[in-house]
Amino acid sequence: MRALITGASSGIGREMAIQLSQMGYDLVLAARSQDKLEELQRLLPTRVSIHCLDLSEESNCHTLHEAVKDDLPDLLINNAGFGIFGEFVKGDLDAELNLIDLNIRALHILTKLFLRDFVAAGRGTILNTSSIAAFMPGPLMSSYYASKAYVQRLTEAIYGELSRQKSPVHICALCPGPVKTNFNRRAGAAFLVDGPESGPIAAYALKKMFAGKLVIIPGWPIRLMRFFIRFVGTKSLLKIIFRVQSLRRRQPA
Q: Which domains does the chain have, with CATH numbers?
């Protein structure tokens, strides 16, 4: 058994690597931080290969695929991504385009390339890290919320196609709420109250993925949130989310 995980150097990706290795999976880990990947490699009991790549560059997505396709993994976890906090009109365009390149383009490319391989092989699973943000608009984090809506709808549509074809290949989306990782630091903001640790989130995600679930939402508060936002008008929801986002505080430089 073999799994490829992007964004594997920290947070949910790192925890999934640890837990899958404990299950006996050999791993291919990709992230930007060579030091963190090497540290994680030393900790894990199974065979681990590492690829220090910035997947926001399209060529690196193809490089990663070429490096592993001949020994096709059983599982692809598209976890790489980041957020940006602030008003859209004041945001840095280059940073937003970089977010789109990583959160959307890289995930799209890797999903496409490995899905073709998995369908041809008649096996394989893809887990795309989405977010509860995928189900609502996101003032003050507009680019991030929009990127996760793309991930969510793409994943669901592919699932529908695979189901119609009765394919043995499975795809699913992990939709966590706030998690205690370095995500908020990179985004330039933080919730006043930390979310849960990434370990239990990763464990729940893997359990539901192996059970064949399509939309994986860890924690009953986040599942309730998804239920109730269906009954709130868009303008009211925008006001609520803006208020919640305004409670974030800037991280020191």
A: 2-246 (3.40.50.720)
